[in-house]
Amino acid sequence: MALNMSGLGVRCGLLSILGNDRMSSLYRTELKKRGVDLSLVYCVSHRIPLLTVTNGENREASRTFDDFGTKHDLSLLQPDTSILNRYDILHVVNTPKLLADYVAQRFRGSISYCPGSLFIRDRRELSAHLLKKARYVFCNEEEYDTLIQSTPIARLFKKNLTYVFKTQGDRGVIVFSPTTTRHFSPIKSKTVIDTTGAGDAFALGVLEGISKSESLERSIQKGLHYAASCVGKEGVVFTEGPRLL
Fold first, then answer.
1. What is the number of other CB atoms lying within 10 angstroms of the CB of residue 181?
2. Between 24 and which of 19, 65, 206, 216 could a Cys-Cys bridge form, CB atoms 3.0 to 4.6 Å apart?
C-alpha cells in the first residue's frame, strides 16, 4: 500500500520490519525507489512472513501463514514518535496489539484501522486503544462480523470513529456512520484476474482522497476504481500508480 500511495504523489512512510532475506531486499529497494520514507522500518535477522492463499475465498481459512517470529518482533517495537508525528494519517493494518496500543497513545493525527487477519486468528489482538482513537475502520466481511461480535457497531461510534467501511467483494461496499448506512455498488472490471489486495486498493483510494481533502463520495469512488483496477491485473502493486478507470 505504501508503494501505491507514493505512486499517487502522496508523501508516505512505512512502519514495519524487514528481514535479511532476498524478498526483504527487493522490498527495501523498491520502496526506496518509489520514495517511501523508511525511517521507521527496522531490520531483523530472520525472513519476513509468508502468506499463501490456498483457494479463491477471501476468508482466513483459505490461507496459510508462516510468521517466522515477526509478530513477536513487531510487538516489541517502540518507534520514534517524532518521526511518526510527521504524518497526518496513520493507517494501521494487521498489527499486534502491543504495537497498536503504543502508537495509539502517541500519534497526534487521524488514525485509520484495519484489524486484519491477525485479529481473526486471535481476538485478543484487537487494540481497544486504537479503536477508540480511530476515525476510519476498514474491514472485509469476515473481519466485520468478528468485530461486531465483541463490539456492537453503535458502541464503536461513541468515541472518535467517523466511518466503518465494510468491503463485500463483487457486492460493493457498505459505509456505516453514526447516523447513516449506505451501500456503494462496485465498479466492474472488464477482466478479473486476481482479487488479492482489492480491499487494500479500496482503502488506498479512500485515504488518498481524505489526505487531499476530497469529499467522502469522491474518495469512495476512487477506492472503487482502484479496487476494480487491482482485480484486473496480477499482483497488488501498480507499476505507475493506480488510475481511475
1. 11
2. 19
User: CB of 103 within 8 A of CB of 92?
Assistant: yes
Domain that includes residue 17, residue range = 1-48
Q: Measure Cα distances from 203 to 20, 113, 139, 154, 173 in Å.
A: 29, 10, 10, 22, 11
> CA 212: distance to chain centroid?
18
Q: Is residue 15 part of a domain?
A: yes
Nearest alpha carbon to residue 202 among 189, 28, 60, 190? 189
Give the C-alpha separation, 86 to 77, whole Å.
18
- 57 CB neighbour count, 10 Å cutoff: 13
Could you give the C-alpha distances from 116 to 66, 127, 159, in angstroms and in order?
A: 16, 12, 21
Asked if the structure places residue 13 within a domain, the reply is yes
35-60 residue pLDDT tens: 999 999 988 766 665 544 444 455 54
Residue 10 lies in a domain: yes
Query: CA–CA separation, 223 vs 232, rounded Å?
Result: 14
Q: Are 208 and 166 in contact (CB under 8 A)?
A: no
- Total domains in the chain come to 1
β-strands 50-53, 89-93 pairing: unpaired
Full-model pTM: 0.86
Between CA 109 and CA 112 the distance in angstroms is 10
- pLDDT (tens digit per residue) in 105-148: 999 999 999 998 888 888 999 999 999 999 999 999 999 999 99
